[in-house]
Design a protein that fits this description.
Strand content: under 5%
CATH architecture of the largest domain: Orthogonal Bundle
Number of strands: 0
Number of domains: 2
Shape: globular
Helix content: 55-70%
CATH superfamily of the largest domain: Winged helix-like DNA-binding domain superfamily/Winged helix DNA-binding domain
């Protein structure tokens, strides 16, 4: 970021915060299921950005870095709060490639609290993948890079989580 005189242009931190605060807050709130803690996590994330901005690779997008910091802050909070359980999804469930009921559930603002409760029933790593995919529109490749997890593992967790959510939604609506 240099101007014509060769000096660095000032960084518009307010703009960066405004562009990312809502998404980061929603991500953190879903991850930790605590709105006040989510605010603290977002604040800590932006503080880390301010502190480390000069060390960041300016050729790379900032958003993935912010989400990685927020994720680490969420995981730190969850580790302190309770032991993490990553092995809850043992059963393979069949789920259609597209299902109007599940998609409606995920897109309905009226059902967001119910969906949040359903997400909370998933292991943390699966919940995180679902949040990044559905709410932040990350690709599987971006999620894989973000979580430093093999692509096929990300896809497997996603589809197992989707199957679990499908089953929960189906059970709640009394469908067979």
């Amino acid at each position: 970021m240099s101007d014509t005189t060769g000096e660095s242009a000032p960084v518009d931190f307010a703009s960066i915060v405004n562009q990312n605060i809502d998404g980061l807050y929603n991500f953190a709130a879903y991850m930790v299921s605590d709105k006040e803690e989510a605010k603290d996590i977002v604040q800590t994330t932006f503080f880390a950005m301010f502190k480390n901005f000069s060390k960041l690779d300016q050729s790379k997008p900032l958003k993935p870095w912010l989400y990685k910091v927020a994720r680490n802050n969420c995981l730190d909070y969850l580790r302190k709060k309770k032991a993490l359980n990553f092995s809850e999804l043992k059963d393979e469930l069949e789920v259609p490639e597209t299902d109007p009921l599940l998609e409606e559930q995920m897109n309905s603002s009226l059902a967001i609290d119910q969906f949040r409760t359903q997400l909370d029933s998933l292991p943390t790593v699966v919940k995180e993948i679902m949040l990044l995919k559905y709410f932040e529109d990350f690709t599987f490749e971006q999620i894989s890079e973000q979580l430093d997890t093999p692509l096929n593992t990300v896809k497997s967790h996603f589809y197992r989580g989707k199957a679990k959510l499908y089953q929960i939604t189906k059970d709640q609506h009394g469908h067979n």
